[in-house]
Design goal:
Distance between the termini: 33 Å
Number of strands: 49
Structural class: mainly beta
Radius of gyration: 32 Å
Largest sheet: 4 strands, antiparallel
Shape: elongated
Length: about 575
């Protein structure tokens, strides 16, 4: 079966199929980072610093991940330079590259040279207890219970900036800049407040989203996103206008309990309690869903309960999950599928792929080496297997008539395949004698729909089937021009079909059915593969081929005597 047998352990759908829309939430790669060595599996907060380290805050200590190993930091009662407590609320790096760790018993600042922590105190000598943090141009704001502390970049000092008592025991769990002089303060159980940093006066914002607030985000367009407990997500303006409300009842939001929010490239990432991650385009209201799919490792979100989301310097998203550790989410241009057990629609029936045919945007046909034919829908990412073709080696696939395919099965012949029923019936090539000659010789018959009304059957010769008259003709070959090995299709361009064997590249005129050699390998050089480049390079008559004697990598650039593709 020569070049058509690609011994793959997987099938990679890249930008190979022109016209396929991006897969819904399918273009992400997930890496689950193990939180062993004593750290629990629930991640409360995440930070990537300017040196590339990933800092992980949990209920039982702090972790630092360098891409290979995880280092643990915990409170040590006999060490004043350890973190003050193991319960970590927030992590942040300021413009001076100070890393701040907010714990249950005080704020700590990481000291890189000594790899330990400095514990700042307030004017009375007590640890500064803060549960939220916000960067400003001049320093860092820390939200505490009815207090706001300020760290000044200029003199590296802490001071109590404001106290407020509009709500008793108001614990500031989230902090954002509403404007240059006003803070938006959020308390998990006591709602939202606006705090004037100059006067210390508090007021309620011009909207009411209830007392139980899970998360708040002010995005790059100054929209305010508020997630009330079990209330989905609200989008508002600074003057209180409700722009949109998203719940499971009026949108594609997967879960009404929103735990975390982040912005990436104008889209809002929404971490839920059991519904995975929803990605919302605010302009269209369209949702994409990242969720855990059993049996789809690396290309399925490892957990569906996401406590925190973080967008790093490189525009990668990190997710802190409940009970499943830290998850790195990276956008990729390739997704890999492998074989799955019978009855599972998330993969192939066999790892070795011999042929591919795209019928439409939502249908890609896959011929396997012993697993028969599969149908893949890139929009749903689901496969359909056909037990009637089990153990068949499907070497080539093409469109036949509406609702029917032609499939070439190694050492068996060509068949008409009906996807609706899964049945296949033998197809006669010219006559019984020709069919036997082509199909029982240990080589595959390759198929190509070269025009709307004709199909090429490629062997040692080219047999052209006219769909209108249901008759065969044979391509006219040049004298003393032998086809060496099986013919393989390169592709169609205007009124010409390009083909190759082990020694030649040919063009077939689709009007006259004449076959002409454009390129020939000399001596013991043979062609393994040929690709047509869609870029402007081909307008000058160039193409790429792979041969056995073209340098260490086996690739060569060739040029015909005249442009192949005008």
């Amino acid at each position: 079966m020569r070049r058509k047998t690609f011994l793959l352990l997987c099938i990679a759908f890249i930008a190979l199929f022109i016209g396929i829309s991006p897969l819904q939430a399918g273009h992400y790669y997930y890496k689950q980072i193990s939180l062993k060595d004593g750290l629990p599996s629930t991640v409360r907060c995440i930070l990537t610093d300017e040196q590339g380290f990933v800092w992980i805050g949990t209920r039982s200590g702090l972790g630092r991940y360098d891409g290979h190993e995880l280092k643990k930091y915990v409170h040590q009662s006999n060490n004043p330079h350890s973190i003050p407590h193991n319960l970590i609320y927030q992590l942040i790096e300021d413009v001076q590259n100070n890393i701040w760790i907010l714990t249950d018993k005080g704020v700590a600042r990481y000291q890189r040279q000594s790899d330990d922590f400095l514990i700042p105190t307030d004017e009375t000598g007590n640890n500064i207890i803060a549960h939220s943090v916000c960067l400003t141009d001049d320093g860092v704001l820390f939200g505490s219970k009815n207090k706001i502390f300020f760290y000044n970049y200029q003199d590296a000092t802490f001071r109590l900036l404001q106290t407020f008592d509009l709500e008793p025991n108001y614990n500031v769990t989230l902090l954002s800049l509403w404007d240059k002089r006003t803070l938006l303060c959020c308390s998990r159980w006591q709602g939202l407040l606006l705090l004037d940093l100059n006067t210390g006066k508090c007021r309620r914002p011009p909207f009411d989203c209830g007392k139980e607030i899970m998360n708040v985000l002010i995005d790059s367009q100054k929209r305010i996103w508020v997630a009330p407990y079990n209330g989905g997500l609200n989008c508002l303006t600074h003057d209180g206008k409700l722009l949109a409300t998203y719940t499971t009842h009026n949108s594609s939001l997967s879960n009404n309990v929103v735990l975390s929010l982040a912005e990436r490239e104008g889209e809002i990432w929404i971490g839920t309690d059991g519904g995975g991650i929803n990605i919302l385009d605010p302009e269209t209201g369209h949702f994409s869903l990242l969720e855990h799919v059993p049996g789809s490792d690396n290309y399925s979100l490892p957990a569906n309960s996401i406590l925190c989301l973080y967008n790093d310097y490189n525009n990668n998203i990190w997710a802190g999950s409940i009970r499943n550790g830290l998850i790195s989410i990276r956008e990729v241009s390739m997704k890999t599928y492998t074989d799955v057990p019978p009855g599972n629609d998330r993969g192939l029936s066999n790892n070795t792929v011999l042929s591919l045919f795209q019928e439409s945007q939502d249908q890609i046909w896959v011929g396997t080496d012993g697993g028969g034919i599969n149908n893949f829908n890139p929009l749903t990412e689901k496969f359909t297997h056909y037990p009637s073709t089990w153990e068949d080696k499907v070497a080539s696939i093409c469109q036949f008539t509406p609702g029917k395919l032609l499939i070439s099965i190694f050492s068996q012949g060509v068949f008409i395949f009906n996807p609706a029923t899964g049945e296949k019936q033998p197809f006669t090539i010219v006559d019984a004698e020709t069919t036997a000659l082509l199909c029982n010789r240990g080589k595959a018959v390759n198929l190509l729909r070269n025009t709307h009304h004709s199909i090429l059957f490629l062997g040692e010769h080219i047999y052209i089937y006219d769909l209108n008259t249901r008759t065969f003709s044979t391509a006219i070959e040049q004298e003393e021009q032998d086809i060496i090995g099986a013919l393989l299709p390169i592709g169609n361009y205007r009124n010409t079909t390009y083909l190759n064997d082990t020694k030649h590249i040919y063009e077939l005129d689709n009007h006259t059915n004449r076959l002409k050699a454009l390129y020939r390998c000399w001596k013991d050089t043979t062609i393994n593969s040929v690709s047509r480049d869609d870029r402007s390079l081909l307008s000058q008559g160039f193409g790429w081929l792979r041969s056995r004697h073209d340098g260490p990598h086996g690739y060569a650039l060739w040029c015909s005597e005249r442009p192949l593709f005008q």
